[in-house]
Amino acid sequence: MKQLLILLATVVLSGRGVAQSDSLALLKADWSSKTLSRGVVWRSVHFSHNDLFGSNEEINIIEITKKGLRDVRLVVAHSDSLEKTSQLASTRHALAGINGSFFKMRGPDPDNRRDLNGVPKLEPSRLAVNRSVVYIREHDSVIAENPPQKSPKRQRHAQGSIALSDTGVSIIEDDSLDLNWEHHIMARDVMSTGPVLMLSGVNWPIGDDAFCRNRHPRTAVGRKADGTVVLLVVDGRAAESAGMSIPELQRTMRWLGCVDAINLDGGGSSAMYIKGEPYDGVVSYPSDNKKFDHEGEREVANAILLESRAGR
Length: 312
What we know:
The protein is α+β, with helices and mostly antiparallel strands. The protein has five helices and 17 strands.
């Protein structure tokens, strides 16, 4: 019995030591940095010697301070069909952008549902519903609703929402007693997604399934206590970058100083765009072409963009 207790204590202490080593590796890494606007900084780092979570990792983040939000705003952008994150961003003349929430990859392409004069056969707001599987509100207009629920418990991809206003970002847990709770959120733009990683500094429970356990490319949004917004993309499915499990993503957002954080769509959808950068602004390494380059970007249904207030 004594030997078992000693063994358990050793495992716990070893786990704490590994976590502390990983957090120090992340914070003390040689991050590259570029200012995009006042109070807006793009940072990136590559771990090439299995130094983070025992693996190689490529991480890009954008940090927007409260002062930065005086000059820029975060917005939701959707596509009536499917477009790459970089295309959505460049069309809107955005400074930066990341992929958004979950959607259906397959199905009829709304771009083909037009009459002989090129006029859509359905209203644009209804077209978006064909691909989106979460609630989307853009500039005070509801673009898509969450699909009907078979039970009060929300599916993972709709267990929280990102609310965007001119003053910043709020991350909100779903209300399982109100099927239309997103409609009551007071914000200009709203995007449902999940799972929630943490709220008010408290880690949210993470499911024990393949989606959460396995490493994949991931995209997340976080908020620090001082209101600074963090947009993160970690690449994956490559020897050069393994990606992260949801618990690893949760720890990473905490180590970056977030008190609130939520997961967005990941896998082949994960992508980050920075205006003026090479490869059409794609600074991450999207994985849909199964190569570690900037060419494997997937077409998505929505994104979160960083726009200049002056340019709008």
